[in-house]
From TrEMBL:
Residues of the ABC transmembrane type-1 domain: 94-323
Protein name: ABC transporter permease
Family from the record: Belongs to the binding-protein-dependent transport system permease family.
Annotated localization: Cell membrane
Swiss-Prot/TrEMBL GO biological process terms: transmembrane transport
Record-linked PANTHER family: DIPEPTIDE TRANSPORT SYSTEM PERMEASE PROTEIN DPPB-RELATED
Primary site of residence: membrane
Assigned keywords, A-Z: Cell membrane, Membrane, Transmembrane, Transmembrane helix, Transport
Cellular component aspect of the GO annotation: plasma membrane
Bilayer-crossing regions: 100-122, 134-161, 196-219, 258-280, 300-326
Membrane topology of the entry: Multi-pass membrane protein
Length: 333
């Protein structure tokens, strides 16, 4: 109980630190958001009125206190560029980003586990060299470079998948929730599910390939250590096949470190959605973040960064709990 309370307290302190850093950095960065909104012939009174409207007329400390009070009340402010509630805008775009990130994580885990098991089964043979070379290539190329390569390959040379968007506009009005892929699968909308999946293929691969290489390398190393343990050697003496040794005996004991690293890397994957969404014009939170930064939309940028920060913190907490659940010594310690 005490440990859980300490973790929650640390979450609050970390999130508060994020709010301070984001607020200060945005205020000291060059550029005036009011100047980008108002016409060249505006009077001083017009400029002052806009500053008062968006809370930019006071000192830095005064602005922070006003903003923090509103934030505690669930008010993220009004977007300067969209003229709408910032929290409502974030809530509209966040499900698309979460769906993209979760699917990419699933693909990364599937591919990473497959490569790790294949490399372990082919230990000290040409297959292991091939797996190590492939994971090295996947890890060396950043996600945005993969995105550009996929655009050229599957969008231009072999136009198999849509280059932009999330769904065909003719199908977009049939959804009741913002989680298009999940809803289409649950409700049996086959045509919509295929279209959403087709739009996801390239951005998901761009995000998943580097992460799957990390998963494969960490899990392969953990499997190599597990394969020389006494319980594996005893199972081998009893005649258990290599496939069962790896997948039944070694894998369940090697998955812990991989899970911990995957949780940490998932937070970086969320951050990587910003550039990947921009490349594919994917209507998620990352794409909107770039637009908000370009327009110096302070309330929207602050809200987006806070949401990303909260996602990072909650993800790390869930990973810690999952590791404790899988490890009896941590669960009962």
């Amino acid at each position: 109980m005490t440990t859980a309370l300490n973790r929650v307290a640390m979450m609050v302190v970390t999130l508060f630190g994020v709010t301070v850093v984001v607020f200060v950095l945005l205020r000291v960065a060059p550029g005036d958001p009011v100047a980008m909104m108002i016409g060249p012939g505006a009077s001083a009174a017009d400029i002052l009125a806009l500053r008062v409207r968006y809370g930019l007329d006071g000192s830095l400390l005064t602005q922070f206190i006003i903003w923090l009070k509103a934030l505690l009340g669930g008010d993220f402010g009004t977007s300067i560029s969209f003229h709408r509630n910032a929290l409502a805008l974030i809530a509209e775009r966040l499900p698309a980003t979460l769906e993209l990130a979760v699917v990419a994580l699933g693909v990364a885990l599937l591919l990473g586990f497959t490569l790790a098991v294949a490399g372990t089964l082919a230990q000290r043979r040409i297959g292991e060299v091939a797996v190590d070379s492939l994971t090295g290539l996947m890890l060396a190329v950043p996600d945005f470079v993969w995105a550009l390569a996929l655009v050229l390959l599957f969008g231009v040379a072999l136009p198999l998948f849509p280059l932009s968007g999330r769904i065909d506009p003719s199908l977009g009005g049939t959804f009741r929730t913002p989680f298009y892929l999940l809803e289409s699968l649950v409700t049996g909308q086959a045509a919509a599910a295929r279209d959403v999946a087709a739009h996801l293929v390239m951005p998901v691969l761009a995000l998943a390939l580097p992460l799957s290489a990390i998963v494969a390398r960490v899990l392969k190393g953990a499997l190599a250590e597990a394969m020389v343990q006494d319980y594996v050697l005893l199972a081998r003496v009893k005649g258990m096949s290599e496939w069962r040794l790896v997948t039944r005996e070694a894998l369940r004991n090697a998955v812990g470190p991989t899970l911990a690293l995957t949780g940490v890397q998932f937070t970086f994957l969320l951050g990587g959605t910003v550039i990947v969404e921009r490349i594919f014009a994917y209507p998620g939170l990352g794409n909107m973040a770039i637009e908000a930064v370009i327009n110096r939309d302070l309330p929207l940028v602050q809200g987006i960064v806070l949401v990303f920060g909260a996602l990072f913190i909650v993800t790390n907490l869930l990973v810690d709990l999952a590791i404790a659940a899988l490890n009896p010594r941590l669960r009962h310690g």
